[in-house]
Amino acid sequence: MTIPFDPTALLDIADKLGLLDGVKKKLFRNPDAAADKLATVLDELSKIYSTLESELVRFLSLHFEPAGNLAAERQVLLTLESGQLTVRMGEARGHCHKIYNIYQKHLDRWFHRVLSPQEAETMKRLFEALSYGDSQMDLAIHQLAGWLGTAASETLDLIDAGKVAEAQQNIRTARREVLPARQAITQTLARLVVLQGDFVSASETD
């Protein structure tokens, strides 16, 4: 079980979000109703990362008692094996389209009014990176979701073969493999939470 995933893809998004830190003081000095829309964008991104982390934790938290009833654990594995998470992550494309629509309708005007032309162009590139469905972020998320489905399937095969101890070891191995990805998700979520709070506050004082 090898995770085909480079966590720098998610960390890159966290770094890109840092571009907002560089201009938010200018934006706050020139408040606009669009601040609320920007908070919405950040919330949309948070939903994607939170869902992925939640499902990873659900898998990694499984514990199998050799002599116990494993019905509940099998149900979790069956759900993850079926690829439901991959489908749910497909919904991220809808979030991505929503993000760029918000940028075009509300944020672009605000950025060009308040920021320098170079800064406004930087913001455009940022939102393009956050919005494109075939972006590096999108690929990384779908690779991770696919890995989780495969890991769940392998673990379920061990459970059904009566190899409970090996199934538990599979979970331990998976935890180590996916830790860098989870750390990248956490770092990105932390950046999103701070920025979202800043722009929610800005929208309330507008």
Strand fraction band? under 5%
Please trace the helix and strand order, writing H or E for each element.
HHHHHHHH
The rounded distance between the terminal residues' Cα atoms is: 51 Å
What is the β-strand count? 0
Portion in helices: over 70%
Name the poorly predicted regions: none
Principal-axis shape equals elongated
Structural class per helix/strand content?
A: mainly alpha
| Average residue pLDDT | 83
Number of helices: 8
Reported for the largest beta sheet, the result is:
none
Q: What Rg is obtained from the alpha carbons, in whole angstroms?
A: 20 Å
Could you characterize the architecture of this molecule?
- The N and C termini lie far apart (51 Å).
- This protein is an all-alpha fold and 206 residues long.
- The model has no long low-confidence stretch (mean pLDDT 83).
- The chain has 8 helices and no strands.
- Helix 5 packs antiparallel against helix 6.
Key traits:
206 residues, mainly alpha, 83% helix, 0% strand, elongated
Task: Give me the secondary-structure topology.
Layout: H1 8-29, H2 34-60, H3 71-81, H4 84-90, H5 92-114, H6 117-131, H7 136-160, H8 164-205
Summarize the structure.
The chain is mainly alpha-helical and 206 residues long.
